């Protein structure tokens, strides 16, 4: 009788072991599946890097616009901003959406400023590596979006083979707006642009995979590992110095270069004087960008 009891106990024990092993395997399978899903989510993520000076009041609209396009993190490099940027950015910093890095490097020439930008971009690439699949390198007057209204992450799936994607500018002027008030949105008011064949529209900025970036000599593009090239929206290879093609059917950057008249005359032209003599060139340049009506990003468009 005791022998039968022992056999039964042994049978029950083995049965429990088998069931436990199956449960363990199921748990491991679920855990692996969860990690894979999280990995896929991470691969879809997109960050943005920019430098800012005394233009803090424009940053909330810029941040919120790009968050709505699917951007999940912002690396903002503070270059001697004397405004109260802490209060303006606090709610975004508290959410973990914005990370501010002080970047106190002086410049005297355009070449100096290019080097300062490129160093910041390389720093952001290092910070992004392993955290974000893509990082867009923009100025705070540049608004990147999908022309078809898709999430940027959704569009970038098409370019997963590439180390980077370049996106052309579409240049906007002041639209003859004297001053954008705190209650108004820049995107609602600046609705006149240059013709699409305007020479400056050949310029582009780059969305890049951080781990593919080797170096940066120009803030518009990068040198990638293994002599790879970025591609344009039509999957054509683009070197960082190739300014010979224009296409904005899928992706586009609206470049509000002059912002409103107050900013243009008080800030933009002053910066130009730092690098170039005379103020006629930027005035004529801005006038040429108030030619065609295009409220594509305005919430008030018909």
Give a brief outline of the structure.
This protein is an alpha/beta fold and 302 residues long.
Label this structure with key terms.
transmembrane, 8-stranded mixed beta sheet, 2 domains, glycosyltransferase, globular, Glyco_transf_92, alpha/beta, Spore Coat Polysaccharide Biosynthesis Protein SpsA, Chain A, 8 helices, 302 residues
Write up this protein:
- It is a single-pass membrane protein.
- It is found in: Membrane.
- Pfam families: Glyco_transf_92 (PF01697).
- InterPro entries: Glyco_transf_92, Nucleotide-diphossugar_trans.
- Helices cover 38% and strands 22% of the residues.
- By secondary structure, it is α/β, with parallel strands linked by helices.
- It folds into two domains: 1-41; 46-293, Spore Coat Polysaccharide Biosynthesis Protein SpsA, Chain A.
- The chain has an eight-stranded mixed beta sheet. Strands 7-14 form a two-stranded antiparallel ribbon.
- The longest helix has 43 residues, at 2-44.
Question: Would you spell out the secondary-structure blueprint of this structure?
Answer:
Layout: H1 2-44, E1 46-52, H2 59-68, E2 73-78, H3 85-94, E3 98-102, H4 110-128, E4 134-137, E5 142-146, H5 152-156, E6 164-172, H6 186-189, E7 192-193, E8 204-208, E9 213-218, E10 221-224, E11 230-231, E12 237-238, E13 251-256, H7 261-275, H8 280-287, E14 292-293
Parallel strand pairs: 1-2, 1-4, 2-3, 6-13
Antiparallel strand pairs: 4-8, 5-13, 6-8, 7-14, 9-10, 11-12
